């Protein structure tokens, strides 16, 4: 930073003496009106004392002007102030450099605040160092928000880990029970549904600190195993986030539709395709999903509608106050599903 030429001596507490004429007046007005806490230190005096502190600085720290002027800024430090940013400040002063640090400072009454300090040199027109300028900003709320966000992410990661373990344990129990009772095929069918639920959560749960999951990612995760060549599925939909309950219902419904398409529908034929579209409807209070099959063989709709998968889907939607319609078009099955996004449990 650079200002007009300044005399060699000045009166402590009146930093504008170093700026001539109109510059001094403008300096005083700017410092008085700004809400940013600002201080100036004299680099030519012993121990770099504060020679100017505006009203915002005094309000931030709780000290009066007489208690601030002539002291080094370290008087705002305390027992929990980290020495690392202090070292960076000291180095910047030695090198006449600019530095921005966050450090814990103490007010006069002993309370702490996180100070985002911007420190830099001020030169006159001859290139001579006349001050070190410091602006202080109370970022305690910002730091608290960061800590809460980090805590939420850590909790989400832990929840993700536990849910993955839970799905693995349940899957293992189903497999063991199936072998013991001689119903391996039934156990495999149940496990396929468990795995579909796991996929719906697994790819996005690490970021679900807000208690919701991005619906598009969940849909793609559930259906990706059925589209290994990436030619049988087409997606189109919103990127909105949904509560966990909605994700559970959607994940199981899409799994049943995909299983049906593999056995009897579009994916039972070479070149069969499925188009999946989703959007928010009813003033964003519901999620609408369309499932449109093309290129599959003609199927016995009555037999499918009596199947286990159909029963599961209908009961899930009934319990979640959702709805489903099925149309057996010439091009293939067309399904419309609506799931509430609020109070879906």
Automatic annotation (TrEMBL):
Q: For this protein, what reaction is catalysed?
A: ATP + protein L-histidine = ADP + protein N-phospho-L-histidine
Question: A single GO molecular function, which one?
Answer: ATP binding
Q: Which Gene3D superfamilies match?
A: Histidine kinase-like ATPase, C-terminal domain, PAS domain
Which one Pfam family would you cite for this protein? HWE_HK
SUPFAM superfamilies xref list: ATPase domain of HSP90 chaperone/DNA topoisomerase II/histidine kinase, PYP-like sensor domain (PAS domain)
What are the PAS domain coordinates in residue numbering? 50-96
Top-level taxon of the source organism: Bacteria
SMART domains per UniProt? HWE_HK, PAC, PAS
- Where the record annotates domain PAC, the positions are 99-151
Enzyme Commission number(s) of this protein: 2.7.13.3
Q: Keyword set for this entry? A: ATP-binding, Chromophore, Flavoprotein, FMN, Kinase, Nucleotide-binding, Phosphoprotein, Photoreceptor protein, Receptor, Sensory transduction, Transferase
- The answer to whether the entry has keyword Kinase is yes
Record carries keyword RNA-binding: no
This chain's protein is named histidine kinase
| Record organism | Erythrobacter insulae
């Amino acid at each position: 930073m650079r200002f007009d030429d300044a005399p060699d001596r000045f009166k402590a507490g009146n930093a504008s003496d170093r700026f001539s004429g109109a510059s001094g007046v403008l300096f005083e007005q700017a410092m008085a009106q700004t809400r940013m806490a600002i201080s100036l230190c004299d680099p030519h005096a012993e121990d770099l004392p504060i020679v100017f502190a505006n009203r915002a600085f005094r309000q931030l720290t709780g000290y009066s002007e007489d208690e601030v002027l002539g002291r080094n800024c370290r008087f705002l430090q305390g027992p929990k102030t980290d020495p690392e940013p202090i070292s960076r400040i000291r180095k910047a002063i030695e090198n006449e450099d600019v530095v921005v640090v966050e450090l814990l400072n103490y007010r006069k009454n002993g309370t702490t605040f996180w100070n985002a300090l911007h420190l830099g040199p001020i030169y006159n027109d001859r290139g001579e160092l006349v001050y070190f300028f410091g602006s202080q900003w109370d970022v305690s709320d910002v730091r608290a928000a960061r800590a809460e966000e980090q805590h939420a992410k850590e909790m989400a990661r832990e929840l993700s880990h536990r849910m993955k373990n839970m799905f693995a344990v349940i899957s293992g129990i189903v497999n063991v029970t199936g072998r013991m009772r001689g119903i391996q095929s039934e156990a495999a069918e149940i496990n396929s549904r468990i795995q579909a639920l796991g996929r719906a959560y697994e790819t996005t749960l690490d970021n679900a600190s807000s208690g919701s999951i991005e619906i598009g990612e969940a849909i793609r995760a559930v259906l990706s195993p059925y589209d290994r060549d990436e030619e049988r599925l087409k997606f189109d939909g919103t990127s909105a986030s949904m509560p966990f309950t909605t994700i559970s219902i959607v994940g199981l419904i899409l799994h049943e539709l995909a299983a049906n398409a593999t056995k009897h529908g579009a994916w039972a034929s070479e070149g069969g395709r499925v188009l999946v579209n989703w959007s928010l409807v009813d003033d964003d209070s519901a999620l609408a999903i369309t499932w449109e099959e093309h290129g599959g063989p003609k199927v016995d709709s009555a037999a499918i509608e009596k199947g286990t998968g159909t029963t599961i889907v209908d009961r899930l939607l009934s319990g979640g106050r959702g709805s489903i319609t099925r149309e057996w078009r010439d091009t293939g099955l067309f399904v419309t599903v609506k799931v509430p996004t609020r109070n879906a449990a």
